[in-house]
From TrEMBL:
Source organism, top-level taxon: Bacteria
Function: Required for maturation of 30S ribosomal subunits.
Family, as annotated: Belongs to the RimP family.
Keywords of this entry: Cytoplasm, Ribosome biogenesis
Domain Ribosome maturation factor RimP N-terminal: 25-99
Keyword match Metal-binding: no
Gene3D superfamilies: RimP-like superfamily, N-terminal (3.30.300.70)
HAMAP family associated with the record: RimP
Residue stretches making up the Ribosome maturation factor RimP C-terminal domain: 103-176
Protein name: Ribosome maturation factor RimP
Annotated organism of origin: Nesterenkonia aethiopica
């Protein structure tokens, strides 16, 4: 079974029914100091409304108390919303994008400065690189070089700027320990 398509850049809903929820959900998320990344409505015996939130800027992660607060506020608003008359029973899932989500917008990159990225580039080998800066046109990264021997510190190449349009795919690599 094919996975539903991800919203395109600038879109927040995958389908028209989920888009109908945006006027109810987005002001609540904004009032909590968060940014609405995505809304998805999944049909089933009980419909599921999935809401993904994040901070618009900075590198701080959204804490569980913030997710719980926005979840309660959204739940109350959805229960009252006339737009959901056909949605008599639903489950609400509110989460953050997760560490390994694809980085598709400049602000996604900016929220991950200092992190290790896996970058796919058209016609070039994949690259593991430390994200150092985000510019108007792209990112500045230092490519990670393999350690010469196990246990030796990782080395990085000189920083280079990659334009956004040269990056076909980018994901954060989860690190269990990192020291500069």
């Amino acid at each position: 079974m094919a996975a539903p398509r991800r919203p395109r850049e600038g879109e927040k809903a995958r389908d028209p029914r989920a888009a109908e929820l945006l006027p109810v959900i987005e002001p609540i998320v904004s009032a909590q100091g968060l940014l609405l990344e995505e809304v998805e409505l999944v049909d089933g015996a009980t419909a599921t409304v999935r809401v993904v939130v994040d901070y618009a800027t900075g590198t701080e992660q959204v804490d569980l108390d913030s997710v719980a607060a926005v979840s309660e506020a959204i739940s109350a608003a959805l229960d009252e919303a006339e737009a959901l008359e056909d949605l008599t029973s639903y489950e609400l899932e509110v989460s953050t994008p997760g560490a390994t989500r694809p980085l598709t917008e400049p602000r996604h990159f900016a929220r991950n400065i200092g992190r290790l990225l896996e970058l796919e580039r058209e016609g070039q080998p994949d690259m593991l690189a430390r994200l150092q800066e985000v510019t108007d046109d792209g990112v500045v990264v230092a490519e990670q070089r393999p350690a010469p021997k196990k246990g030796m510190p990782v080395k990085y190449s000189e920083p280079v700027e990659l334009p956004f349009d040269a990056i076909s795919r980018a994901r954060v690599q989860v690190e269990f320990s990192h020291t500069e």
